[in-house]
Structure prediction request, 261 residues.
Amino acid sequence: MKNVFYIFTLIGLTLLPSTKALSLDESILISQTKTNAHDVKIPPYLPLSGKASAAFSRNQGNVDEGALKYSFSLSSQGEANKVYLKIKGKRTEKRQKRSKEEHEMSLLNVYHLNHTSGFYGKVTSYQNEPRGYEHQWRLGVGYLHTWYQSNNEKYFKTRMGYQNRANDYTTGADSYQDYLLLGCRVKYPLMENISLFMELNYGSDYSNRNDYETEGLLSFTFYVNKSIDIKIDYERFYSYIPAPGKKKTDTSLATSLIYKF
Prediction:
């Protein structure tokens, strides 16, 4: 039943209003287009943009082999909301046999109060058998704040939120957890076509503060042209109390080819 709740929440996030209600003038304008469509143009409702990437990574921890990674994301901007859909995964090869795979799909809706702050809701479907998760549902809400931003290439942002997790472990056991989430993001241009990005995340179980995890990402992006980027990133994940029988630390060094559209 709890998984059904997560699914309906995921659907609800997609249906949240992304534009403000039409004013009287806008309603009149639309009615005019029915009789004089060549004279009046209505802008698109929700313009889409996205990225697709493929990468090769070297991993240490629960998997000590190379891996092929993929990522696909779409975003849609309204007047007050911005919606993100992201799908990513990893496939490793170990001793000439395919090891257990990793998949993640998330839907994020950000409602901007103003140019510096906003609230978010996020639903995630997560599978990571090397870390001991047959499947995991995550439902989170929180607050976002931008402390500094000169443009999209230079900023410092933080977040604080709550997340509920429904875990199905590879051992057959299951559990539910409530997490406090804290995080920050920094982006800074090093050169005209090279930028630095850093992200730090911390999560702690409300019922056991010794059960916490940290995740860090350091990446360099090389802008080839308007459509192509090359990215090198280093990720480190640490769980003080990992799933039964699993290691506490996973690291990854990857090189990605990114196509923007």
Q: What stands out?
A: The radius of gyration is 21 Å. Helices lie at 2-14, 24-33. Residues 16 and 242 are 35 Å apart (CA to CA). Confidence is low (pLDDT under 50) at residues 14-45.
